[in-house]
């Protein structure tokens, strides 16, 4: 028996842990289910939009088109996105963020001289949902997104000051690097469109062999 000011023994440890912040309670089952449902809805919406982009221009795709293709209601769509263009923005921004993350991780490992590790990691990422990326790359309006990828690659490679210090002619090298980045994006685009048969690892090896730094640009 305890007085009103006492904390029962079976609750004392919980109080201490909570105060210390050492542990957090696991999410309730209902919260986990809600998270999974929201994630599934976003995936359905994005997949529906990418499928529709194989058939028509973005400015001709309506929210009604998307909810019908995804088999959801309009309320579910508006719970996650304001309009069709915000879906496109999220798809592009997530891919750019992932590429940026890969480039940042490998930058400290002399990315400019040794791009193969990041190319192989990119291959692993694409393989996680290859059919989705095949559709995305074939989508109407994909070219502007590919240009963003190219600019990001050039920007990150040019920020590798240690390797750039060894380049004799920076202007000439920048031209070669821009050509390399554009070609790399084009190669992956062609591969996703099925224009040649090679594994993604083989593609990475080929692209790596064309590195302008190794060519002494």
Short description:
The protein has 217 residues and is mostly helical.
How would you describe this structure to a colleague?
- The protein has 217 residues and is mainly alpha-helical.
- It has two domains: 28-81, Orthogonal Bundle (Arc Repressor Mutant, subunit A); 83-217, Tetracycline Repressor, domain 2 (Orthogonal Bundle).
- It is 69% helix and 0% strand.
- The chain has eleven helices and no strands.
- α5 packs antiparallel against α6 and α5 (84-107) runs parallel beside α8 (142-158).
- The longest helix has 24 residues, at 29-52.
- The chain starts with 8 loop residues before the first helix and ends in an 8-residue tail after the last helix.
- The relative contact order is 0.09.
- The model is unreliable at 1-24 (pLDDT under 50).
Tally of individual domains = 2
Strand content: under 5%
- Give Rg in angstroms: 24 Å
Structural class: mainly alpha
Overall 3D shape: elongated
Secondary-structure element sequence?
HHHHHHHHHHH
Mean pLDDT: 79
Regions with pLDDT < 50 over 5+ consecutive residues?
A: 1-24
* Tally of alpha and pi helices: 11
How many beta-strand segments?
A: 0
Helix content: 55-70%
Instruction: Indicate the CATH topology of the largest domain.
Output: Tetracycline Repressor, domain 2
- CATH class division of the largest domain: Mainly Alpha
Largest sheet: none
CATH architecture of the largest domain: Orthogonal Bundle
Q: Please give the alpha-carbon distance between the first and last residues.
A: 83 Å
